[in-house]
Amino acid sequence: MIDVQNLTKRYGRTTAVNGVSFRVEKGEILGFLGPNGAGKTTTMRILTGYLPATEGTATVAGFDVFKQPIEVKKRVGYTPETPPLYPDMQVGEFLEFCARIKGVPKDRRAARVEEAAEKCRVADVRKKMIGRLSKGYRQRVGLAQAILNNPEVLILDEPTAGLDPKQIIETRELIKGLGGDHTVVLSTHILPEVAVTCGRVVIINQGRVVAEDTPDNLTRRLRGSAALQVDVRGDARMAEEALRAVTGVAQIAPHAAEADACAFEVTPEPGRDVRAEIARALVERGLGLLGLRQVGMSLEEIFLRLTTADAAAGESAPPPPPDAPPEAEVTA
Amino acid sequence: MTALRNVWALVRKEWHHYFASPIAYVLLVAWSVLGGIFFSAYFWAYLERSRATAAQSEFGMKMSLNEMLFAPVFNNMAVVALFMTPMLTMRLFAEEKRQGTIELLATAPLTDLQIVLGKFLAAVGFYAGMVVICFANLLVVWAYADTPPEWRPVLTGLLAVLLLGSALIALGLFVSTLTRNQIIAAVMAFSLSLVMLVLGWFDNPMAGPFMKFVTYFGLTNHLEDLLKGVIDLKDVVFYLSVITFGLVLAHQSVESQRWRA
Protein backbone atom coordinates (compact mmCIF):
# COMPACT_ATOMS: atom_id res chain seq x y z
CA MET A 1 0.00 0.00 0.00
CA ILE A 2 2.88 2.32 0.81
CA ASP A 3 6.30 1.84 -0.68
CA VAL A 4 9.08 4.23 0.24
CA GLN A 5 12.43 3.90 -1.43
CA ASN A 6 15.54 5.72 -0.38
CA LEU A 7 13.72 8.89 0.57
CA THR A 8 15.93 11.88 1.30
CA LYS A 9 14.98 15.40 2.24
CA ARG A 10 17.51 18.15 2.68
CA TYR A 11 16.79 21.63 3.91
CA GLY A 12 19.76 23.61 2.78
CA ARG A 13 22.63 21.90 4.53
CA THR A 14 20.70 19.92 7.08
CA THR A 15 19.44 16.52 6.11
CA ALA A 16 16.13 15.81 7.77
CA VAL A 17 15.51 12.43 6.17
CA ASN A 18 18.36 10.35 4.90
CA GLY A 19 17.73 7.39 2.62
CA VAL A 20 14.63 6.06 4.37
CA SER A 21 13.02 2.96 2.87
CA PHE A 22 10.09 0.95 4.16
CA ARG A 23 6.91 -0.74 3.04
CA VAL A 24 3.49 -0.89 4.57
CA GLU A 25 1.06 -3.61 3.57
CA LYS A 26 -2.65 -3.14 3.19
CA GLY A 27 -4.53 -3.09 6.47
CA GLU A 28 -1.39 -2.83 8.53
CA ILE A 29 -0.81 -0.35 11.35
CA LEU A 30 2.75 0.89 11.22
CA GLY A 31 4.27 2.78 14.09
CA PHE A 32 6.78 5.40 13.20
CA LEU A 33 8.94 5.87 16.21
CA GLY A 34 11.73 8.26 16.92
CA PRO A 35 12.88 11.07 19.15
CA ASN A 36 11.71 14.58 18.38
CA GLY A 37 13.40 15.91 15.29
CA ALA A 38 14.22 12.45 13.92
CA GLY A 39 12.47 13.13 10.63
CA LYS A 40 9.10 11.54 11.33
CA THR A 41 7.03 14.57 10.42
CA THR A 42 9.09 15.30 7.33
CA THR A 43 8.66 11.74 6.07
CA MET A 44 4.92 11.90 6.67
CA ARG A 45 4.66 15.24 4.94
CA ILE A 46 6.40 13.79 1.93
CA LEU A 47 4.02 10.82 1.90
CA THR A 48 1.02 13.14 1.92
CA GLY A 49 2.39 15.19 -0.95
CA TYR A 50 2.81 18.27 1.21
CA LEU A 51 6.57 18.38 0.77
CA PRO A 52 8.59 17.25 -2.20
CA ALA A 53 11.52 14.94 -1.46
CA THR A 54 15.04 15.78 -2.49
CA GLU A 55 15.71 12.21 -3.59
CA GLY A 56 14.00 8.86 -3.65
CA THR A 57 10.53 7.69 -4.50
CA ALA A 58 7.34 7.12 -2.58
CA THR A 59 4.31 5.26 -3.82
CA VAL A 60 1.03 5.42 -1.95
CA ALA A 61 -1.94 3.28 -2.98
CA GLY A 62 -0.25 2.60 -6.28
CA PHE A 63 0.37 6.24 -7.21
CA ASP A 64 3.64 8.09 -7.22
CA VAL A 65 3.52 10.90 -4.69
CA PHE A 66 5.50 13.25 -6.91
CA LYS A 67 4.00 12.45 -10.26
CA GLN A 68 0.35 12.03 -9.34
CA PRO A 69 -0.07 13.99 -6.13
CA ILE A 70 -3.79 14.61 -6.59
CA GLU A 71 -4.52 10.88 -6.94
CA VAL A 72 -2.51 10.21 -3.80
CA LYS A 73 -4.23 13.00 -1.87
CA LYS A 74 -7.62 11.57 -2.78
CA ARG A 75 -6.64 8.32 -1.08
CA VAL A 76 -4.83 9.61 1.97
CA GLY A 77 -6.29 11.00 5.16
CA TYR A 78 -3.79 13.03 7.13
CA THR A 79 -3.69 14.73 10.50
CA PRO A 80 -0.62 16.78 11.29
CA GLU A 81 0.61 17.02 14.83
CA THR A 82 -1.42 20.13 15.54
CA PRO A 83 -4.69 19.44 13.80
CA PRO A 84 -5.31 22.08 11.12
CA LEU A 85 -8.66 23.55 12.13
CA TYR A 86 -10.45 26.82 11.55
CA PRO A 87 -11.33 28.21 14.97
CA ASP A 88 -14.15 30.34 13.56
CA MET A 89 -16.06 27.36 12.21
CA GLN A 90 -18.41 24.99 13.94
CA VAL A 91 -17.28 21.38 14.00
CA GLY A 92 -20.09 20.35 11.65
CA GLU A 93 -19.36 23.18 9.22
CA PHE A 94 -15.69 22.35 9.22
CA LEU A 95 -16.26 18.67 8.48
CA GLU A 96 -18.72 19.63 5.77
CA PHE A 97 -16.09 21.86 4.16
CA CYS A 98 -13.48 19.13 4.36
CA ALA A 99 -15.87 16.65 2.77
CA ARG A 100 -16.37 19.13 -0.05
CA ILE A 101 -12.71 19.65 -0.83
CA LYS A 102 -12.06 15.93 -0.53
CA GLY A 103 -14.61 15.39 -3.26
CA VAL A 104 -17.23 13.48 -1.25
CA PRO A 105 -20.31 13.52 -3.52
CA LYS A 106 -23.11 15.79 -2.37
CA ASP A 107 -25.64 13.06 -1.67
CA ARG A 108 -23.27 11.22 0.64
CA ARG A 109 -21.73 14.22 2.37
CA ALA A 110 -24.10 14.46 5.31
CA ALA A 111 -23.88 10.74 5.98
CA ARG A 112 -20.10 10.70 5.82
CA VAL A 113 -19.79 13.68 8.14
CA GLU A 114 -22.14 12.01 10.57
CA GLU A 115 -20.29 8.72 10.45
CA ALA A 116 -16.87 10.28 10.94
CA ALA A 117 -18.17 12.42 13.80
CA GLU A 118 -19.68 9.35 15.48
CA LYS A 119 -16.54 7.29 15.06
CA CYS A 120 -14.31 9.96 16.52
CA ARG A 121 -16.81 10.86 19.24
CA VAL A 122 -17.24 14.46 18.24
CA ALA A 123 -20.91 14.18 17.30
CA ASP A 124 -21.94 15.89 20.54
CA VAL A 125 -19.97 19.05 19.72
CA ARG A 126 -21.06 19.47 16.11
CA LYS A 127 -22.65 22.82 16.83
CA LYS A 128 -19.70 24.10 18.83
CA MET A 129 -17.13 26.56 17.60
CA ILE A 130 -13.81 24.82 17.06
CA GLY A 131 -12.03 27.70 18.78
CA ARG A 132 -13.79 26.79 22.02
CA LEU A 133 -13.00 23.09 21.97
CA SER A 134 -10.58 21.45 24.35
CA LYS A 135 -7.37 19.98 23.04
CA GLY A 136 -8.75 16.46 23.15
CA TYR A 137 -11.77 17.36 21.07
CA ARG A 138 -9.62 19.22 18.56
CA GLN A 139 -7.39 16.23 18.14
CA ARG A 140 -10.45 14.10 17.47
CA VAL A 141 -11.94 16.59 15.02
CA GLY A 142 -8.62 16.40 13.20
CA LEU A 143 -8.97 12.64 13.12
CA ALA A 144 -12.59 12.85 11.93
CA GLN A 145 -11.43 15.12 9.13
CA ALA A 146 -8.86 12.52 8.07
CA ILE A 147 -11.31 9.62 7.82
CA LEU A 148 -14.10 11.63 6.15
CA ASN A 149 -13.74 10.26 2.67
CA ASN A 150 -12.91 6.78 3.91
CA PRO A 151 -9.35 6.92 2.58
CA GLU A 152 -7.33 3.79 1.94
CA VAL A 153 -4.38 5.22 3.81
CA LEU A 154 -4.33 7.16 7.06
CA ILE A 155 -1.27 9.11 8.09
CA LEU A 156 -1.44 10.33 11.65
CA ASP A 157 1.29 12.50 13.10
CA GLU A 158 1.29 12.04 16.87
CA PRO A 159 -2.45 11.46 17.15
CA THR A 160 -2.39 11.25 20.93
CA ALA A 161 -0.21 14.26 21.66
CA GLY A 162 -1.71 16.43 24.35
CA LEU A 163 -4.52 14.09 25.32
CA ASP A 164 -5.35 12.95 28.84
CA PRO A 165 -4.85 9.25 29.67
CA LYS A 166 -8.47 8.34 29.14
CA GLN A 167 -8.54 10.05 25.76
CA ILE A 168 -5.27 8.40 24.80
CA ILE A 169 -6.78 4.98 25.42
CA GLU A 170 -9.91 5.90 23.48
CA THR A 171 -7.90 7.22 20.57
CA ARG A 172 -5.73 4.10 20.50
CA GLU A 173 -8.82 1.94 20.43
CA LEU A 174 -10.18 4.05 17.61
CA ILE A 175 -6.98 3.71 15.59
CA LYS A 176 -6.87 -0.02 16.21
CA GLY A 177 -10.41 -0.22 14.92
CA LEU A 178 -9.36 1.62 11.78
CA GLY A 179 -6.65 -0.90 10.94
CA GLY A 180 -7.83 -3.65 8.63
CA ASP A 181 -10.03 -1.40 6.53
CA HIS A 182 -7.42 1.31 6.37
CA THR A 183 -3.68 1.20 6.17
CA VAL A 184 -2.41 3.34 9.01
CA VAL A 185 0.93 5.00 9.58
CA LEU A 186 1.19 6.75 12.90
CA SER A 187 4.11 8.53 14.42
CA THR A 188 4.85 8.94 18.05
CA HIS A 189 7.66 9.32 20.47
CA ILE A 190 5.64 7.62 23.16
CA LEU A 191 6.69 3.99 23.24
CA PRO A 192 3.84 2.12 24.90
CA GLU A 193 1.68 3.50 22.15
CA VAL A 194 3.32 1.45 19.43
CA ALA A 195 3.43 -1.64 21.59
CA VAL A 196 -0.32 -1.36 22.05
CA THR A 197 -1.52 -0.24 18.65
CA CYS A 198 0.96 -1.13 15.97
CA GLY A 199 1.58 -4.36 14.15
CA ARG A 200 4.99 -3.19 13.06
CA VAL A 201 7.44 -0.51 14.11
CA VAL A 202 9.93 1.53 12.17
CA ILE A 203 12.39 3.27 14.41
CA ILE A 204 13.94 6.32 12.91
CA ASN A 205 16.74 8.41 14.28
CA GLN A 206 18.55 11.35 12.74
CA GLY A 207 16.77 10.77 9.48
CA ARG A 208 17.67 7.09 9.18
CA VAL A 209 15.78 3.90 9.78
CA VAL A 210 17.60 2.13 12.61
CA ALA A 211 15.24 -0.79 13.11
CA GLU A 212 12.09 -2.24 11.66
CA ASP A 213 10.04 -5.15 13.03
CA THR A 214 7.04 -6.10 15.12
CA PRO A 215 7.21 -4.73 18.66
CA ASP A 216 7.55 -8.30 20.02
CA ASN A 217 10.25 -9.32 17.59
CA LEU A 218 12.18 -6.17 18.19
CA THR A 219 12.28 -6.93 21.86
CA ARG A 220 13.26 -10.54 21.26
CA ARG A 221 15.80 -9.97 18.54
CA LEU A 222 17.59 -7.27 20.33
CA ARG A 223 17.78 -9.36 23.42
CA GLY A 224 19.13 -12.39 21.60
CA SER A 225 16.79 -14.78 23.31
CA ALA A 226 14.68 -13.83 26.24
CA ALA A 227 16.75 -13.72 29.41
CA LEU A 228 15.45 -15.04 32.71
CA GLN A 229 15.67 -13.41 36.06
CA VAL A 230 16.12 -16.05 38.75
CA ASP A 231 15.85 -15.17 42.44
CA VAL A 232 17.11 -17.83 44.79
CA ARG A 233 17.25 -18.22 48.59
CA GLY A 234 20.37 -19.99 49.72
CA ASP A 235 24.04 -20.08 48.99
CA ALA A 236 24.99 -18.17 45.84
CA ARG A 237 27.78 -20.50 44.83
CA MET A 238 25.59 -23.56 45.14
CA ALA A 239 22.87 -21.90 43.16
CA GLU A 240 25.22 -20.98 40.38
CA GLU A 241 26.49 -24.50 40.19
CA ALA A 242 22.98 -25.80 39.98
CA LEU A 243 22.19 -23.42 37.17
CA ARG A 244 25.30 -24.37 35.24
CA ALA A 245 24.29 -27.99 35.37
CA VAL A 246 21.06 -27.26 33.52
CA THR A 247 21.39 -28.08 29.85
CA GLY A 248 20.47 -25.25 27.53
CA VAL A 249 21.78 -22.45 29.67
CA ALA A 250 24.17 -20.29 27.73
CA GLN A 251 25.16 -17.62 30.16
CA ILE A 252 24.79 -16.80 33.80
CA ALA A 253 25.30 -13.37 35.28
CA PRO A 254 25.04 -12.98 39.04
CA HIS A 255 23.29 -9.90 40.38
CA ALA A 256 23.28 -7.97 43.56
CA ALA A 257 23.09 -10.62 46.22
CA GLU A 258 21.36 -9.98 49.51
CA ALA A 259 22.13 -11.62 52.85
CA ASP A 260 20.64 -15.01 52.26
CA ALA A 261 19.29 -14.54 48.77
CA CYS A 262 20.86 -14.10 45.39
CA ALA A 263 19.76 -13.30 41.89
CA PHE A 264 20.99 -14.31 38.47
CA GLU A 265 20.28 -13.34 34.99
CA VAL A 266 20.25 -16.48 32.94
CA THR A 267 20.40 -16.40 29.17
CA PRO A 268 19.26 -19.63 27.60
CA GLU A 269 20.46 -20.86 24.24
CA PRO A 270 18.38 -19.37 21.47
CA GLY A 271 14.96 -20.91 21.15
CA ARG A 272 15.07 -22.98 24.35
CA ASP A 273 12.75 -22.67 27.27
CA VAL A 274 14.67 -23.82 30.32
CA ARG A 275 12.40 -22.51 33.05
CA ALA A 276 11.07 -25.87 34.17
CA GLU A 277 14.58 -27.36 34.27
CA ILE A 278 15.92 -24.47 36.30
CA ALA A 279 13.14 -24.76 38.82
CA ARG A 280 13.69 -28.50 39.21
CA ALA A 281 17.49 -28.19 39.49
CA LEU A 282 17.25 -25.60 42.23
CA VAL A 283 14.56 -27.33 44.23
CA GLU A 284 16.36 -30.67 44.02
CA ARG A 285 19.39 -29.10 45.68
CA GLY A 286 17.25 -27.75 48.46
CA LEU A 287 17.46 -24.13 47.38
CA GLY A 288 14.45 -21.85 47.60
CA LEU A 289 13.20 -20.57 44.29
CA LEU A 290 11.80 -17.14 45.01
CA GLY A 291 11.18 -15.90 41.52
CA LEU A 292 11.61 -16.84 37.91
CA ARG A 293 10.56 -14.49 35.19
CA GLN A 294 11.44 -13.43 31.68
CA VAL A 295 13.09 -10.09 31.33
CA GLY A 296 12.26 -8.81 27.87
CA MET A 297 13.81 -5.51 27.19
CA SER A 298 11.14 -2.85 27.19
CA LEU A 299 10.65 -0.83 24.09
CA GLU A 300 12.05 2.13 25.96
CA GLU A 301 15.35 0.36 26.41
CA ILE A 302 15.47 -0.78 22.81
CA PHE A 303 14.63 2.66 21.66
CA LEU A 304 17.25 4.28 23.81
CA ARG A 305 19.85 1.75 22.85
CA LEU A 306 19.17 2.10 19.14
CA THR A 307 18.99 5.82 19.06
CA THR A 308 21.94 6.48 21.33
CA ALA A 309 24.14 3.82 19.72
CA ASP A 310 23.60 5.44 16.39
CA ALA A 311 24.36 8.87 17.69
CA ALA A 312 27.54 7.65 19.32
CA ALA A 313 28.74 5.76 16.29
CA GLY A 314 28.37 8.78 14.08
CA GLU A 315 26.80 9.44 10.72
CA SER A 316 28.05 6.54 8.65
CA ALA A 317 27.44 3.77 11.17
CA PRO A 318 25.09 1.05 9.99
CA PRO A 319 22.19 0.20 12.26
CA PRO A 320 23.32 -2.15 15.02
CA PRO A 321 22.98 -5.78 13.97
CA PRO A 322 19.69 -6.97 15.40
CA ASP A 323 21.11 -10.18 16.82
CA ALA A 324 24.11 -8.60 18.48
CA PRO A 325 24.82 -10.25 21.82
CA PRO A 326 23.47 -8.18 24.66
CA GLU A 327 26.03 -6.52 26.82
CA ALA A 328 26.18 -7.68 30.40
CA GLU A 329 23.87 -5.32 32.10
CA VAL A 330 22.05 -5.01 35.34
CA THR A 331 18.31 -4.73 35.08
CA ALA A 332 17.43 -5.29 38.71
CA MET B 1 -16.26 20.16 -13.00
CA THR B 2 -14.32 18.99 -9.97
CA ALA B 3 -12.12 22.03 -10.32
CA LEU B 4 -15.10 24.35 -10.25
CA ARG B 5 -16.60 22.56 -7.29
CA ASN B 6 -13.33 22.84 -5.40
CA VAL B 7 -12.99 26.54 -6.15
CA TRP B 8 -16.57 27.13 -5.09
CA ALA B 9 -16.00 25.27 -1.83
CA LEU B 10 -13.02 27.52 -1.13
CA VAL B 11 -14.95 30.66 -2.01
CA ARG B 12 -17.68 29.72 0.45
CA LYS B 13 -15.12 28.98 3.11
CA GLU B 14 -13.49 32.40 2.71
CA TRP B 15 -16.87 34.11 2.88
CA HIS B 16 -17.51 32.22 6.06
CA HIS B 17 -14.29 33.64 7.52
CA TYR B 18 -15.20 37.17 6.43
CA PHE B 19 -18.59 37.05 8.09
CA ALA B 20 -17.46 35.10 11.13
CA SER B 21 -15.10 37.95 11.99
CA PRO B 22 -15.96 41.64 12.29
CA ILE B 23 -14.01 42.37 9.10
CA ALA B 24 -16.97 41.95 6.76
CA TYR B 25 -19.20 44.23 8.81
CA VAL B 26 -16.57 46.88 9.44
CA LEU B 27 -15.72 47.02 5.76
CA LEU B 28 -19.34 47.15 4.65
CA VAL B 29 -20.20 49.91 7.10
CA ALA B 30 -17.09 52.00 6.40
CA TRP B 31 -17.53 51.60 2.68
CA SER B 32 -21.22 52.54 2.72
CA VAL B 33 -20.66 55.52 4.98
CA LEU B 34 -17.81 56.82 2.84
CA GLY B 35 -19.81 56.17 -0.31
CA GLY B 36 -22.71 58.10 1.20
CA ILE B 37 -20.50 61.01 2.22
CA PHE B 38 -18.95 61.32 -1.24
CA PHE B 39 -22.34 60.98 -2.86
CA SER B 40 -23.95 63.72 -0.82
CA ALA B 41 -20.93 66.02 -1.07
CA TYR B 42 -20.88 65.84 -4.86
CA PHE B 43 -24.63 65.94 -4.98
CA TRP B 44 -24.73 69.23 -3.05
CA ALA B 45 -21.93 70.61 -5.17
CA TYR B 46 -23.89 69.67 -8.24
CA LEU B 47 -27.02 71.43 -6.96
CA GLU B 48 -25.05 74.57 -6.12
CA ARG B 49 -23.46 74.69 -9.53
CA SER B 50 -26.65 74.11 -11.43
CA ARG B 51 -28.42 76.80 -9.42
CA ALA B 52 -25.56 79.20 -10.12
CA THR B 53 -25.54 78.53 -13.86
CA ALA B 54 -29.31 78.73 -14.05
CA ALA B 55 -29.17 82.20 -12.49
CA GLN B 56 -26.49 83.39 -14.87
CA SER B 57 -28.25 82.67 -18.10
CA GLU B 58 -31.37 81.09 -19.41
CA PHE B 59 -29.37 79.00 -21.78
CA GLY B 60 -27.23 77.77 -18.91
CA MET B 61 -25.42 74.67 -20.00
CA LYS B 62 -27.23 71.57 -18.97
CA MET B 63 -24.89 70.01 -16.48
CA SER B 64 -24.20 66.34 -16.78
CA LEU B 65 -25.05 64.23 -13.78
CA ASN B 66 -22.68 61.64 -15.14
CA GLU B 67 -19.73 63.96 -15.28
CA MET B 68 -20.39 65.94 -12.15
CA LEU B 69 -21.79 63.33 -9.83
CA PHE B 70 -21.13 59.77 -10.86
CA ALA B 71 -17.60 60.08 -12.21
CA PRO B 72 -16.18 61.85 -9.13
CA VAL B 73 -17.97 59.49 -6.75
CA PHE B 74 -16.53 56.48 -8.56
CA ASN B 75 -13.13 58.11 -8.66
CA ASN B 76 -13.18 58.62 -4.92
CA MET B 77 -14.46 55.15 -4.23
CA ALA B 78 -11.56 53.82 -6.25
CA VAL B 79 -9.20 55.47 -3.79
CA VAL B 80 -11.23 54.14 -0.86
CA ALA B 81 -10.88 50.69 -2.40
CA LEU B 82 -7.14 51.13 -2.17
CA PHE B 83 -7.48 51.40 1.59
CA MET B 84 -10.04 48.64 2.02
CA THR B 85 -8.88 45.80 -0.21
CA PRO B 86 -5.82 45.05 1.94
CA MET B 87 -8.24 44.17 4.72
CA LEU B 88 -9.91 41.69 2.40
CA THR B 89 -6.68 40.09 1.26
CA MET B 90 -4.48 40.16 4.35
CA ARG B 91 -5.84 37.01 5.92
CA LEU B 92 -6.16 34.92 2.78
CA PHE B 93 -2.83 33.13 2.97
CA ALA B 94 -1.15 34.67 5.99
CA GLU B 95 -3.74 33.31 8.39
CA GLU B 96 -3.73 29.85 6.82
CA LYS B 97 0.01 29.76 7.29
CA ARG B 98 -0.12 30.97 10.87
CA GLN B 99 -2.84 28.50 11.84
CA GLY B 100 -1.18 25.68 9.95
CA THR B 101 -4.39 25.11 8.01
CA ILE B 102 -2.46 25.59 4.78
CA GLU B 103 -1.40 21.99 5.41
CA LEU B 104 -5.04 20.93 5.31
CA LEU B 105 -5.55 22.59 1.93
CA ALA B 106 -2.22 21.41 0.57
CA THR B 107 -2.90 17.77 1.46
CA ALA B 108 -6.46 17.81 0.18
CA PRO B 109 -6.95 16.87 -3.47
CA LEU B 110 -6.77 20.51 -4.55
CA THR B 111 -4.30 22.10 -6.92
CA ASP B 112 -2.43 25.26 -5.94
CA LEU B 113 -4.20 27.05 -8.76
CA GLN B 114 -7.60 26.12 -7.35
CA ILE B 115 -6.56 27.39 -3.94
CA VAL B 116 -5.31 30.70 -5.34
CA LEU B 117 -8.37 31.17 -7.55
CA GLY B 118 -10.79 30.26 -4.77
CA LYS B 119 -9.30 32.85 -2.49
CA PHE B 120 -9.13 35.49 -5.21
CA LEU B 121 -12.72 34.98 -6.30
CA ALA B 122 -13.94 35.02 -2.71
CA ALA B 123 -12.37 38.44 -2.13
CA VAL B 124 -13.54 39.76 -5.51
CA GLY B 125 -17.04 38.47 -4.83
CA PHE B 126 -17.18 40.23 -1.51
CA TYR B 127 -15.79 43.39 -3.05
CA ALA B 128 -18.37 43.22 -5.85
CA GLY B 129 -21.02 43.15 -3.15
CA MET B 130 -19.54 46.32 -1.69
CA VAL B 131 -19.61 48.01 -5.10
CA VAL B 132 -23.24 47.08 -5.60
CA ILE B 133 -24.15 48.54 -2.22
CA CYS B 134 -22.40 51.78 -3.13
CA PHE B 135 -24.33 51.81 -6.37
CA ALA B 136 -27.60 51.50 -4.49
CA ASN B 137 -26.98 55.04 -3.18
CA LEU B 138 -26.82 56.33 -6.70
CA LEU B 139 -30.10 54.73 -7.74
CA VAL B 140 -31.89 57.53 -5.88
CA VAL B 141 -30.85 59.89 -8.67
CA TRP B 142 -33.01 58.07 -11.19
CA ALA B 143 -36.02 58.53 -9.00
CA TYR B 144 -35.72 62.32 -8.84
CA ALA B 145 -33.73 63.65 -11.83
CA ASP B 146 -35.88 65.20 -14.56
CA THR B 147 -33.30 64.17 -17.18
CA PRO B 148 -32.03 60.83 -15.95
CA PRO B 149 -28.29 60.17 -16.22
CA GLU B 150 -26.96 58.02 -18.99
CA TRP B 151 -26.62 54.33 -18.18
CA ARG B 152 -23.53 53.60 -20.14
CA PRO B 153 -20.97 55.67 -18.20
CA VAL B 154 -22.50 54.42 -14.96
CA LEU B 155 -22.03 50.81 -15.98
CA THR B 156 -18.51 51.35 -17.28
CA GLY B 157 -17.78 53.30 -14.09
CA LEU B 158 -18.89 50.33 -12.00
CA LEU B 159 -16.78 48.09 -14.19
CA ALA B 160 -13.82 50.42 -13.63
CA VAL B 161 -14.19 50.30 -9.86
CA LEU B 162 -14.56 46.54 -10.02
CA LEU B 163 -11.51 46.08 -12.24
CA LEU B 164 -9.36 48.33 -10.11
CA GLY B 165 -10.46 46.55 -6.94
CA SER B 166 -9.78 43.13 -8.46
CA ALA B 167 -6.30 44.25 -9.47
CA LEU B 168 -5.66 45.46 -5.93
CA ILE B 169 -6.98 42.15 -4.57
CA ALA B 170 -4.72 40.13 -6.86
CA LEU B 171 -1.70 42.09 -5.64
CA GLY B 172 -2.80 41.81 -2.01
CA LEU B 173 -3.33 38.08 -2.43
CA PHE B 174 0.23 37.67 -3.63
CA VAL B 175 1.59 39.71 -0.75
CA SER B 176 -0.40 37.60 1.69
CA THR B 177 1.46 34.49 0.54
CA LEU B 178 4.74 36.03 1.67
CA THR B 179 4.08 36.25 5.38
CA ARG B 180 2.26 34.55 8.20
CA ASN B 181 1.36 37.86 9.81
CA GLN B 182 -1.89 39.49 8.70
CA ILE B 183 -0.84 43.00 9.70
CA ILE B 184 2.34 42.77 7.66
CA ALA B 185 0.36 41.44 4.72
CA ALA B 186 -2.05 44.39 4.97
CA VAL B 187 0.70 47.00 5.30
CA MET B 188 2.66 45.56 2.39
CA ALA B 189 -0.42 45.33 0.19
CA PHE B 190 -1.37 48.88 1.04
CA SER B 191 2.14 50.21 0.37
CA LEU B 192 2.37 48.38 -2.92
CA SER B 193 -0.99 49.74 -4.07
CA LEU B 194 -0.07 53.23 -2.92
CA VAL B 195 3.20 53.16 -4.85
CA MET B 196 1.32 52.08 -7.95
CA LEU B 197 -1.18 54.88 -7.42
CA VAL B 198 1.54 57.49 -7.01
CA LEU B 199 3.29 56.36 -10.20
CA GLY B 200 0.32 57.74 -12.06
CA TRP B 201 0.86 61.22 -10.65
CA PHE B 202 3.91 61.76 -12.83
CA ASP B 203 1.66 61.78 -15.83
CA ASN B 204 1.95 65.02 -17.80
CA PRO B 205 1.90 65.88 -21.46
CA MET B 206 5.60 66.81 -21.44
CA ALA B 207 6.71 63.45 -20.06
CA GLY B 208 9.46 61.67 -21.94
CA PRO B 209 9.26 58.02 -22.98
CA PHE B 210 10.64 56.77 -19.67
CA MET B 211 8.15 58.73 -17.58
CA LYS B 212 5.40 57.61 -19.93
CA PHE B 213 6.42 54.06 -19.23
CA VAL B 214 6.43 54.66 -15.48
CA THR B 215 3.06 56.36 -15.46
CA TYR B 216 1.58 53.49 -17.42
CA PHE B 217 1.62 51.61 -14.15
CA GLY B 218 -0.42 54.30 -12.42
CA LEU B 219 -3.33 52.31 -11.06
CA THR B 220 -5.96 55.02 -11.35
CA ASN B 221 -4.79 56.51 -14.63
CA HIS B 222 -6.67 53.87 -16.52
CA LEU B 223 -9.96 54.77 -14.88
CA GLU B 224 -10.58 58.04 -16.71
CA ASP B 225 -11.95 56.77 -19.99
CA LEU B 226 -14.02 54.10 -18.34
CA LEU B 227 -15.61 56.71 -16.09
CA LYS B 228 -16.54 58.69 -19.18
CA GLY B 229 -18.29 55.67 -20.61
CA VAL B 230 -15.55 54.70 -23.04
CA ILE B 231 -14.37 51.13 -22.88
CA ASP B 232 -10.83 51.38 -24.15
CA LEU B 233 -9.38 47.94 -24.62
CA LYS B 234 -5.96 49.02 -23.40
CA ASP B 235 -7.35 50.10 -20.02
CA VAL B 236 -9.22 46.85 -19.57
CA VAL B 237 -6.15 44.95 -20.66
CA PHE B 238 -4.07 46.88 -18.14
CA TYR B 239 -6.26 45.82 -15.21
CA LEU B 240 -6.57 42.26 -16.47
CA SER B 241 -2.79 42.13 -16.79
CA VAL B 242 -2.27 43.32 -13.24
CA ILE B 243 -4.79 40.71 -12.06
CA THR B 244 -3.05 37.95 -13.99
CA PHE B 245 0.34 39.12 -12.79
CA GLY B 246 -0.77 39.08 -9.16
CA LEU B 247 -2.35 35.65 -9.47
CA VAL B 248 0.65 34.15 -11.24
CA LEU B 249 2.97 35.54 -8.58
CA ALA B 250 0.71 34.21 -5.83
CA HIS B 251 0.63 30.80 -7.47
CA GLN B 252 4.40 30.71 -7.91
CA SER B 253 4.90 31.81 -4.35
CA VAL B 254 2.59 29.15 -2.92
CA GLU B 255 4.24 26.49 -5.02
CA SER B 256 7.81 27.53 -4.31
CA GLN B 257 7.25 27.75 -0.58
CA ARG B 258 6.58 24.05 -0.56
CA TRP B 259 9.90 23.38 -2.17
CA ARG B 260 11.70 25.57 0.28
CA ALA B 261 9.66 24.61 3.33
Count of DSSP-assigned helices of chain B: 10
Largest sheet of chain A: 6 strands, mixed
Largest interface: A-B, 27 and 27 residues
Taking pLDDT < 50 over at least 5 consecutive residues as the criterion, the unreliable ranges of chain A are 310-332
Summed over residues and divided by their number, the pLDDT of chain A gives a mean of 82
- Tell me the structural class of chain B: mainly alpha
- Whole-number radius of gyration of chain B? 21 Å
First-residue to last-residue Cα separation of chain B: 31 Å
Helix content of chain A: 25-40%
Content of β-strand of chain B:
under 5%
Oligomeric organization of the protein chains: heterodimer
- The unreliable regions of chain B are none
Order of helices and strands of chain A, N to C? EEEHEEHEHHHEHEHEEHEHEEHEH
Basic shape of chain B: globular
Instruction: Give the end-to-end Cα distance of chain A, rounded to a whole number of Å.
Output: 43 Å
CATH class of the largest domain in chain A: Alpha Beta
Global morphology of chain A: elongated
* DSSP strand tally of chain B: 0
Average pLDDT confidence of chain B is: 89
| Annotated CATH homologous superfamily of the largest domain in chain A | P-loop containing nucleotide triphosphate hydrolases
Secondary structure category of chain A: alpha/beta
Short summary of the structure?
The complex is a heterodimer of chains A (332) and B (261). Chain A is an alpha/beta fold.
Architecture blueprint of SSEs:
The complex is a heterodimer of chains A (332) and B (261).
Chain A lengths: L1 E10 L2 E11 L4 E5 L6 H8 L7 E6 L2 E2 L4 H7 E4 L11 H11 L4 H14 L15 H13 L5 E5 L7 H14 L4 E6 L2 H7 L2 E6 L2 E6 L1 H9 L3 E7 L2 H10 L3 E7 L5 E8 L6 H10 L3 E8 L3 H15 L19
Parallel strand pairs in A: 3-8, 3-9, 6-7, 7-8
Antiparallel strand pairs in A: 1-2, 1-4, 4-5, 9-10, 11-13, 11-14, 12-13
Helix pairs in contact in A: 3-4, 4-5
Chain B lengths: L1 H19 L2 H34 L8 H35 L2 H6 L4 H33 L6 H26 L5 H18 L9 H8 L7 H5 L4 H28 L1
Helix pairs in contact in B: 1-5, 2-3, 2-5, 3-5, 3-6, 3-7, 5-6, 5-10, 6-7, 6-10
